[in-house]
């Protein structure tokens, strides 16, 4: 019997995964624990190894499709072994819908016979049922709609025999199993939610925001139909049109797509990053303060010990472990910076779980150094190298990118002087490290005389949530980090 390869559950709250790339083709031999495909989930991208050795007999879920966990995605067995004719999972769906074809505009479909309308309309011919757009809410009829109005971005195909999709099928197409589970637990009708995902897909953030607004007494439910009525004409007006097609009357040309433009769907990690960044800007009162730090003493310490450190421990001695160590010490003095906000409560975390942003070729990810306050310079150096390497090779575990209490990002590695980073929710602070380089600065000797000197300096930028952290406390925190770094007294053990 062939062995089944299933979509794994990459975390407690993960309900589905997207196959982004097959690393093996059907018919190729595979070794046990050899990576055979890559997946992307709401939490992490990862390479999935083969559960057994043998031949990859059949691939049942193609690249770009999203399926629930425990779905059989492939079969491994002996070469030539029969696989049966089990079809792919019914819930499989394209994860990244392709943009409309640029060749020619599809003809506008006639209104379906069953659609509600204020005025009598001729019944559609039974020979071909028109496709139904994926958005579940009916579009209000417009008396003088032009015949050349842009079609919906994507149409859901009619089922076999011309059968039109049921409401349940349409809801399933525009939401994930996790979103449907949250909706069921909270008594929410997904059709009432305006999806912000591609082609109006309802995301996890959409439904959580909707529930939060409803609890707060906001206009989430009452205003939903009116919002759709106002928003839909604008959405139709702004919808991408095929190259060469005439623009609708009144359409705004500022974002026009031409035949020379390349339209590429967002990757899953890019969409998740976008959603999280927008959520953070809406949630936290962002303020940024910037300090210049003199790293000269640390630079001298590194220069004396970096070769022996690498030879003895197998890791490079960079500036980051020193910055991590100084930040951890300051977080102990200012516990509110290592806190978070939970409704009307403030949570002061006793342990420091330090997030470190890692730039990838396909996006950004923030693995977490657990109990960083218990680690030495050597321990922090090892953890930094290990997490960065495994992030770039897609070998991080879901638990390693969640639960951080404070984050440090290092745009300076690309030459940036400093930035104003966005806070990673539900944290209340993030420290940006600018490039560290030699510059001429004013130095004062022991006699009080000033002179120009060459020092190793850089900027630290702290973005903080002003709902919890006052400006004075943020500056005192960063001044403490600066003082520890400039003193340069660290144990390298």
Please explain how this structure is put together.
- The chain is α+β, with helices and mostly antiparallel strands and 493 residues long.
- It is 25% helix and 21% strand.
- It has nine helices and 20 strands.
- It has helices at residues 167-173, 177-186, 204-215, 224-238, 268-283, 296-313, 320-333, 377-392, 471-487; strands at 3-6, 16-22, 29-30, 35-40, 45-49, 54-59, 65-68, 72-77, 93-94, 286-294, 339-342, 345-348, 354-356, 358-360, 363-365, 368-369, 406-409, 429-433, 437-444, 450-465.
- The strands form five sheets. Strands 10, 13, 16, 17, 18, 19 and 20 form a seven-stranded mixed sheet that branches. Strands 5-4-2-7-9 form a five-stranded antiparallel sheet, with no helix packed on it.
- A hairpin with a 5-residue loop joins strand 19 (437-444) and strand 20 (450-465).
- Helix 7 crosses helix 8 (377-392) and helix 7 crosses helix 9.
């Amino acid at each position: 019997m062939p062995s089944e390869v299933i979509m794994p559950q990459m975390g407690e709250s993960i309900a589905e995964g997207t196959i982004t790339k097959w690393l093996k083709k059907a018919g190729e031999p595979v070794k046990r624990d050899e990576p055979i495909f890559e997946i992307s989930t709401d939490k992490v991208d990862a390479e999935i190894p083969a559960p057994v050795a043998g031949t990859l007999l059949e691939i049942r879920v193609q690249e770009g499709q999203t399926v629930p966990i425990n779905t059989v995605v492939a079969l491994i067995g002996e070469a030539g072994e029969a696989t049966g004719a089990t079809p792919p999972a019914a819930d499989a769906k394209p994860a990244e819908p392709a943009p409309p074809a640029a060749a020619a505009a599809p003809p506008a479909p006639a209104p379906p016979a069953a659609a509600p309308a204020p005025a009598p309309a001729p019944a559609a011919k039974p020979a071909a049922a028109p496709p139904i757009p994926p958005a579940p809410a009916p579009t209000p009829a417009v008396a003088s709609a032009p015949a050349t109005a842009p079609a919906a971005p994507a149409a859901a195909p009619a089922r076999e025999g011309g059968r039109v999709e049921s409401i349940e099928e349409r809801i399933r197409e525009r939401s994930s199993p996790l979103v449907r589970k949250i909706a069921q637990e909270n008594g929410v009708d997904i059709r009432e939610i305006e999806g912000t995902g591609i082609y109006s897909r309802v995301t996890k953030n959409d439904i959580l925001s909707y529930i939060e607004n409803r609890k707060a007494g906001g206009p989430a439910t009452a205003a939903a139909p009116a919002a759709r009525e106002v928003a839909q004409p604008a959405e139709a007006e702004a919808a991408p049109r095929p190259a060469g097609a005439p623009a609708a009357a009144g359409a705004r040309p500022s974002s026009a797509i031409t035949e020379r433009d390349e339209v590429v769907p967002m990757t899953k990690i890019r969409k998740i990053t976008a959603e999280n960044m927008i959520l953070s800007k809406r949630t936290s009162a962002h303020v940024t303060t910037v300090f210049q730090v003199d790293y000269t003493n640390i630079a001298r310490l590194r220069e004396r010990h970096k070769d022996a450190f690498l030879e003895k421990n197998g890791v490079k001695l960079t500036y980051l472990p020193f910055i991590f160590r100084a930040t951890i010490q300051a977080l102990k003095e200012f516990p509110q910076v290592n806190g978070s906000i939970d409704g009307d409560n403030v949570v002061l975390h006793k342990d420091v779980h330090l997030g470190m942003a890692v730039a990838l070729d396909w996006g950004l990810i923030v693995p977490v150094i657990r109990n960083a306050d218990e680690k030495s310079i050597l321990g922090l150096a090892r953890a930094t190298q290990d997490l960065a390497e495994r992030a770039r090779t897609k070998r991080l575990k879901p638990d390693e990118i969640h639960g951080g209490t404070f984050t440090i990002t290092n745009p300076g590695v690309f030459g940036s002087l400093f930035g104003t980073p966005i806070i990673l929710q539900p944290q209340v602070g993030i420290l940006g490290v600018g490039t560290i380089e030699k510059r001429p600065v004013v130095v004062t000797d022991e006699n009080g005389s000033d002179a120009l000197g060459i020092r190793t300096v850089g900027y630290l930028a702290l973005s903080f949530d002003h709902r919890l952290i006052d400006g004075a406390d943020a500056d005192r925190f960063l001044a403490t980090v600066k003082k520890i770094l400039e003193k340069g007294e660290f144990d390298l053990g």
